[in-house]
C-alpha cells in the first residue's frame, strides 16, 4: 500500500515538475483573465489564494486580506476597499495584460480557512508577493511577503502605489476618475444660488447691506479665533473630559492645552466684557434719564468687574504662577 | 474754560504739540526700557538661534562692503554644498544695522556692531509706537493714537519678538508694517500719489526686511477689493492703489530673494488681480459718467462681473498649467491646517508653527483682547474707508494668530489700535467735565418718545448723545479703567520679565537660597570648539544649532536653521538615527570631524536632542522610508522609551549612544537617572566604536564627539575596539598599573 502510494505520488509529481514553467505561464494567463473580467481586483477563494501565492511565481501579486462584512465592524477595511479597487482598476486600464502585477483580494467571508491557517486576527492586511523566478526575483520574500503598514501610511491609493513602486520595478499610477457628478452638482448649485440671489435680491438687499449683520459676523469670527477655536479645530480636542474623580473637567490643565467647552466659556466672557465696554461708551451717554443712567453705569461696571475677575481666575488655573487677581473671584 | 475748548483752541496748539511729543518720547522710553531685562540680568548678548545668523551676516557686511555682501557665497554652512547667502536672505535688517554702524562711526562713536545688533529691536519698538500713534490718529484722534502707542509699546505680544538681543527680522518688520499701513491709509484718504509712492517705498523696505511682507501684499488689495464691493470706488482709491502697486512691485523685485515672484507666484496674484480690476472699474466709471442711459449702465456692471470671473478663471488655469507657482507650503499650511503635518514635517516640527491655545492670547494681550471686539464694533459705527481696513485686518490677523503662534505678532498691532479706539471712546465720554446741555436733553427725550424703543447690541449707537449726569458715574468708570490699565502694565512687566527675557543661549536657574545661578553650557562648548579644533573642522549637529555654531564657534556646519535643503537635513537625521555601522560612512563622506549633541538628562533641560529625535527620524524617513522607520523607535506598546525597555533600534542609534555615552559613570552602579524623561537608565551604558568623546560641558548639556579616523590596520572600528579591550584585559591581568592607562587617554 505504502509503496503504491509513493509511486502514485511520484507519478503525480513528475508532470508538475516538468510543467512548472508552463504552469507559471498558465497562471499568468488565468489570473490575467480573471482580472480582466473583474475589472482589476481578483476575488480570491481559499484555493485561488494558495495558487496565486504559491511558488513558482513569475509575477508580483498584491494580496489584500480583508473583512468587508459589516458584522465584523472593520471600519478601515471598508474605507480602504474602494481605494484598492481604484488602484487595481487604474493599473488594469493602463496595462491591458497586467504585465505581471496582480491585485487580489480575499474576503474573510470566503476565505476563513486561509485566515485561520495564517493565524490572522486582524484585518486589513495587504501583502506583496514578489516573483520567485525571473530577473526581478526576490529570494528574501518567497514565502514571507512584504506587508503594508497601515499605521504608518495614509490610506489613499497613491500611498499604496508609492509603496509598491518602492519595492518592485512597477510604478502604478492612480487615475482618479473625474467626478462629473460633483462638477454637475457644483455648477447647478452655483447656478441655483445665483438664480435665487437674483430673484430674492430685493428681499436680501437690506441684509446684504446691513451694517449690523456684517458687524455681528465679524465680531463672532474675532471672538471665535481669539478664544482658541482654531486650536480645537486643528488638534481635535475633546469637548469636556473626565476629571478622574467621576466628575467632568471643564478646564484642561496646562498652558498649552484646552477643552472645547473651555474655549466657549472664554469666548462668552470676552463677548460680555466687550459688550460692557460698548455699552459704557455708546449706550450710556445716550440715556436721557439721569437715574436710569446712573443705575446702568453701576450695573455695567459691576458686570465688567466680575467678568474680568472671573477671566483672571480662569487664567490662574491655566498658569499657576500668575500673580494678579481681581475681586470677587480669586 | 471747558476741556474740549482747551483741546481745540488755537492758542494752546504749541503746548499740545509739546505735550504730545513728551508723551510719545516717554512711551518710546518705556518701550525701550521694558525690553532691557535680559541685558541687565545677563549681558549684551544675541539670543536664540536665527539672530545668530543675522548677527554673523551683519558682521560680514560691516567687515566687507555692500557688494561683496550682495554676492556672498558662504562655504562655511551646508557643507559641502554651501549657500548663496547674499541671494537667499532678506537684507533689510543687516543693512539697517550696517548703516547705523557707519553713521555712528562717522560721528566718531566707537560702537561695536554687536551692541547695535542687540539694541536694534528695542530702538525700533520706539519707532513702532510712533507709527502706531500715526495710524490710530488717522482712525480716530490724537488721544486714541497716544493710547495705542502706549499699548503697543508694552504689549507682550510684540515684546516677545523684540527684546534686546532678539536680533531678528521681526525686530524692524513690525515698525515697517505699521508705517506702511499708515502711509496707505494716508494715501487713500488724500488720494495722493505722493503718499502712495511713500507707501511703496516703505513697502520696499518691508520686502527687504521680512518674508511676512506677503501680509501687506494681500491686505492692501483686500481692502481695495472690499471697498469696491461696498460701492466705495473713488478716484482716491484708484490713485493710491495704482501708485502703491506699480512702484511697490517694481521696487520689491529688486531684492534678489524675491526676484520675479511678484508676477509668478500665487501669493502675489491678489494684488495684481485687484490692480487689473481697478483699471476696469475706473474705465467703466468714466464711461458711465459720460453715458446716461440706464441699460448701458447695467451692461457695464455685468461687464465688470464677467471680467472678474474670466480673470479668476485665467488665474486658475495658469496655476494648473504651472506658469504661476501655487501657494508655497508655508503659506498654504495657513489655509489647509492639516497640510504641513503630512507634507512638510520640517515646518510642522517648529514649535512656533503650532496653533494657539486661548491662554496664549490672554498672556500676550491681557485686557486688550476683550477691548479688541469692542473697538472693531466702534469701527463699524463710523465705517469710513479706513475703518474698513481695521476690521479686515482684525479678522484676518486673528485667524492667522489662531493657526500659528508666531503670527500673534501681526495680530498685536491691530489689537492695540482697536483697543485704543474703544478705550478712548469710553474715556471721551467719562472725562467730559460738562454737565449735559438741557436743550440737548429735551430734544433727545422728545426723539426718544417719538421713536419706537429698540435696544440691543446692534443698535447701541441709536439716539442723540446727551452725556453723563453724575460725577459719581464718571469717577467710577474712569477709576475702574485706570485701575485696569495699571493692572495691564503690571501684567506686561511680569510677562516680559518672566517669559520673554531669557536669551536661551544662557539659562538661568534659582539656587535654594534664592540667588541666581547661570548655566552657560552652550557658550562653554562653542568656545571650546573655537579654541580647540582646526578652523576648517566640520561640525555635524541637528539643524537647530547650525546658526549658533556658525556664529559662536565659527566652524563649518552641515545644516542650519535656514532649512533650504530637506534632503541634506534628512541625511543628518539618518546619520543620527542609524546604527554606527551605517552612520560612520555617512560621516566620513561628509568629512565630519565633530558631532555635537544637546543632552538635558542631567539637568532636566527638556529642549534636548532626544526629545527632538522623533522629528529627525520623521524627516529622515521622508527621504529614506526603507532605512529609517519611525515605528521601530517605539516599543510594541507604542511608547517612546529610553530606559531598559527601549527598542534595539533606539538603543543602537547614534543619537542615543552619544547622549548616554559614559552617563552611568556619574552615578553609583545601576542608579543612572534621566531627569527629563524621568526614567532609570540601563545599568550598562552604550558603547561607541566609531566616535570618541571629545568634550562634555559642565552640566552635560552639550556633548561633542570626535569622529575617529580609519583604523591603521584596516580593521573596522568595532573589532579594533574589541582587540584593544582584549589587550587591556590581558595587560591588567599582568598587573599593569592603572596610571599608565590613564596617561594614554590623556
TrEMBL record, chain A:
The chain crosses the membrane at residues 180-201, 213-231, 265-285, 297-315. Keywords: Endoplasmic reticulum, Membrane, Signal, Transmembrane, Transmembrane helix. InterPro entries: OligosaccharylTrfase_OST3/OST6, Thioredoxin-like_sf. The lineage of its organism: Eukaryota, Fungi, Dikarya, Ascomycota, Pezizomycotina. Subunit of the oligosaccharyl transferase (OST) complex that catalyzes the initial transfer of a defined glycan (Glc(3)Man(9)GlcNAc(2) in eukaryotes) from the lipid carrier dolichol-pyrophosphate to an asparagine residue within an Asn-X-Ser/Thr consensus motif in nascent polypeptide chains, the first step in protein N-glycosylation. N-glycosylation occurs cotranslationally and the complex associates with the Sec61 complex at the channel-forming translocon complex that mediates protein translocation across the endoplasmic reticulum (ER). All subunits are required for a maximal enzyme activity. This is Uncharacterized protein. Residues 1-19 form the signal peptide. It is found in: Endoplasmic reticulum membrane. The keyword Nucleus does not apply. Its main location: endoplasmic reticulum. It comes from Sphaerosporella brunnea. Gene3D superfamilies: Glutaredoxin (3.40.30.10). GO terms for biological process: protein N-linked glycosylation via asparagine. Belongs to the OST3/OST6 family. SUPFAM superfamilies: Thioredoxin-like (SSF52833). It is a multi-pass membrane protein. GO terms for cellular component: oligosaccharyltransferase complex.
Automatic annotation (TrEMBL), chain B:
It catalyses: a di-trans,poly-cis-dolichyl diphosphooligosaccharide + L-asparaginyl-[protein] = N(4)-(oligosaccharide-(1->4)-N-acetyl-beta-D-glucosaminyl-(1->4)-N-acetyl-beta-D-glucosaminyl)-L-asparaginyl-[protein] + a di-trans,poly-cis-dolichyl diphosphate + H(+). One of its GO terms (cellular component) is oligosaccharyltransferase complex. It comes from the Eukaryota. Keywords: Endoplasmic reticulum, Glycoprotein, Glycosyltransferase, Magnesium, Manganese, Membrane, Metal-binding, Transferase, Transmembrane, Transmembrane helix. It is an enzyme of class 2 (transferase). This is Dolichyl-diphosphooligosaccharide--protein glycosyltransferase subunit STT3. Pathway: Protein modification; protein glycosylation. It comes from Sphaerosporella brunnea. Its cofactor is Mn(2+); Mg(2+). Residues 727-746 have a biased composition (Basic residues). Residues 721-746 are annotated as: Disordered. The lineage of its organism: Eukaryota, Fungi, Dikarya, Ascomycota, Pezizomycotina. The chain crosses the membrane at residues 21-42, 88-104, 116-136, 142-159, 171-188, 194-216, 237-263, 269-287, 299-325, 360-380, 387-405, 475-496. GO terms for molecular function: dolichyl-diphosphooligosaccharide-protein glycotransferase activity; metal ion binding. Residues 539-586 form the STT3/PglB/AglB core domain. Residues 18-418 form the Oligosaccharyl transferase STT3 N-terminal domain. Its EC number is 2.4.99.18. Pfam families: STT3, STT3-PglB_core. Belongs to the STT3 family. It is a multi-pass membrane protein. One of its GO terms (biological process) is post-translational protein modification. It is found in: Endoplasmic reticulum membrane. Catalytic subunit of the oligosaccharyl transferase (OST) complex that catalyzes the initial transfer of a defined glycan (Glc(3)Man(9)GlcNAc(2) in eukaryotes) from the lipid carrier dolichol-pyrophosphate to an asparagine residue within an Asn-X-Ser/Thr consensus motif in nascent polypeptide chains, the first step in protein N-glycosylation. N-glycosylation occurs cotranslationally and the complex associates with the Sec61 complex at the channel-forming translocon complex that mediates protein translocation across the endoplasmic reticulum (ER).
